[in-house]
């Protein structure tokens, strides 16, 4: 039996919840949110630290508190959220197949919003040599075990990767009584926010070893130690700089990957740099009527912008169902020198658009320039730019009038 | 004598790198530069005179649908009390149900800060 819905949202994390609420407020009733976990909220449920919502709510909420605001609002609006159900397939014609303990259900939606979030890169992705003992965790898994399941992961811990989750976990594990020996980062700068280095590492005198990596894992049943070496500019370990840390646990915080397996089945074109769908200014993917938002589109550092993206996708999905928003977005946006990626990848002219991007390297007092051929459309100068911090720049319809081909780059 | 020091603001993810001018004779903050907001300026002043941090952690729950409830301090604690406070929280066991924003510990370690639940945990 085919169950008909207006909008199906895959994932009830911050992006999916914000999308559902926005779609409902815009008058849509047939909204269904499908969530794999037992409860809504997504990764926020295990992010018990604070700092969420400063932009949206002007206060520092914890993850569960931020999620609760949206879950409560969704409930009050009567939005249908089904948990413990896994979407197996989405087809080009927006047929969604989902599996739960109740069996398989097939839905037909007028629009689909992808909000599946991301997952972590693992040891396999970075190829650390050595034995394969227990005691190697990704930071998010360690966070889940410690914060939700009351399972402590180890006593003497080394963390590889200085992304925000790694930094947050360094503090968390210290407060739970573990000794965090060091946070090791291959790059010459941290990939986490500066405020987390201050409050998670400096406060607890945990050393941050930049330009270092783990070159070997030892131990059979359990991790016994790891070897750390300095790396050169190319990331290759330098002979004679090795030292061994005796530890029982290695935690990896080495990057996040948008979780797009079902998107691929639908034939959605994925951007090689972001790992998310290629989208236009409506956050519409290469398949008409399928939209993407949140970490499945691009990995964010602030949840506030994830919620904003969810709302933007919902607004566009509602317009799509009404038969509007069909303008061809055939102007390509290219990331030029100094910019790793820019979103959306294609636009149409004549409307206000928020561009989000990340720079390739940390730099100071640089200008981000939007150019159409030889014409400069917009310039914005920043005191400091950091790959860990997403940059968002708004362009007005007037600034984009008549644009044919857009490039975004850093001056100099 | 005046002296200046760079402090990275931890109030929000902007992470302003503030320049703080300190008068060493009375340990008073004379001026805070490069802060985008007033909260940042207040943080910089506190950071020189009496550094404070919010505490977030978990507390054990018996007979709950989850074994832990997440908690936070309702205001920042003196930085040097954070570790001791976390140790105190590890000793506590609560009986489910726990309601949202329930006070778990009041006036933790005499700091004036209460520890409150940041989620609800129903009875199993």
TrEMBL record, chain A:
GO terms for molecular function: oxidoreductase activity. InterPro entries: FAD/NAD-bd_sf, FAD/NAD-binding_dom, Metab_Enz_Cyan_OpOx_G3PDH. Pfam families: Pyr_redox_2. It comes from the Bacteria. Signal peptide: none annotated. Residues 5-302 form the FAD/NAD(P)-binding domain. Keywords: Oxidoreductase. This is Thioredoxin reductase.
TrEMBL record, chain B:
It comes from the Bacteria. InterPro entries: CPE0013-like_sf, DUF1667. Signal peptide: none annotated. Coiled coil: none annotated. This is CxxC motif-containing protein. The lineage of its organism: Bacteria, Bacillati, Bacillota, Clostridia, Eubacteriales.
């Amino acid at each position: 039996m085919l169950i008909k819905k207006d909008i199906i949202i895959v994932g009830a994390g911050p992006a999916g919840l914000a999308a559902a609420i926005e779609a409902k407020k815009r008058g849509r009733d047939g909204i269904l949110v499908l969530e794999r976990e037992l409860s809504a909220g997504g990764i926020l449920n295990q992010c018990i630290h604070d700092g969420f919502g400063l932009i949206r709510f002007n206060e520092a909420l914890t993850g569960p508190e931020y999620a609760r605001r949206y879950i409560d609002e969704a409930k009050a609006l009567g939005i249908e959220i089904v948990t413990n159900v896994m979407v197996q397939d989405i087809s080009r014609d927006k047929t969604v197949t989902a599996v739960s303990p109740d069996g398989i259900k097939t839905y037909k939606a007028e629009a689909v919003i992808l909000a599946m979030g991301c997952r972590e890169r693992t040891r396999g992705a970075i190829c650390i040599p050595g034995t394969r003992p227990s005691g190697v965790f990704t930071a998010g898994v360690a966070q889940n075990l410690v914060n939700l399941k009351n399972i402590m992961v180890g006593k003497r811990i080394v963390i590889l990767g200085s992304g925000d989750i790694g930094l947050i976990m360094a503090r968390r594990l210290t407060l739970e009584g573990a000794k965090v020996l060091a946070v090791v980062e291959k790059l010459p700068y941290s990939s986490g926010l500066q405020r987390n280095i201050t409050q998670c590492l400096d406060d607890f005198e945990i050393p941050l070893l930049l330009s270092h990596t783990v070159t070997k894992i030892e131990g059979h049943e359990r991790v016994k130690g790891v070897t750390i070496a300095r790396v050169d500019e190319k990331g290759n370990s330098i002979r004679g700089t090795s030292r061994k840390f005796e530890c029982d646990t290695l935690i990896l915080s080495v990057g996040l990957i948008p979780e797009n397996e079902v998107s691929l089945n639908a034939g959605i074109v994925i951007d090689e740099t972001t790992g998310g769908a290629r989208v236009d200014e409506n956050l519409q993917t290469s398949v008409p009527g399928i939209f993407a938002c949140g970490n499945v589109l691009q990995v964010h550092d602030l949840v506030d912008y994830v919620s904003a993206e969810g709302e933007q996708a919902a607004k566009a999905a509602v317009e799509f169902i009404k038969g509007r928003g069909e303008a061809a977005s055939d102007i390509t946006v290219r990331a030029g020198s100094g910019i790793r990626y820019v979103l959306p990848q294609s636009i149409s002219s004549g409307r206000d658009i928020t561009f989000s991007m990340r720079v390739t390297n940390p730099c100071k007092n640089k200008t981000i320039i939007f150019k159409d051929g030889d014409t400069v459309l917009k310039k914005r100068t920043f005191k400091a730019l950091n790959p860990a911090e997403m940059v968002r720049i708004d362009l007005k319809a007037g600034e984009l009038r008549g644009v044919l081909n857009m490039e975004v780059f850093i001056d100099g | 004598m005046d002296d200046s020091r760079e402090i990275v603001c931890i109030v929000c993810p902007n992470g302003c790198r503030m320049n703080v001018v300190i008068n060493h004779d009375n340990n008073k903050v004379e001026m805070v530069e490069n802060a985008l907001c007033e909260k940042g300026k207040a943080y910089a002043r506190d950071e020189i005179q009496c550094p404070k941090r919010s505490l977030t952690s978990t507390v054990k729950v018996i007979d709950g649908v989850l074994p832990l409830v997440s908690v936070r301090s309702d205001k920042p604690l003196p930085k040097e009390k954070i570790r001791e406070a976390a140790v105190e929280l590890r000793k506590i066991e609560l009986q489910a149900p726990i309601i949202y924003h329930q006070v778990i510990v009041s006036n933790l370690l005499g700091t004036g800060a209460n520890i409150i639940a940041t989620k609800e945990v129903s009875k199993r």
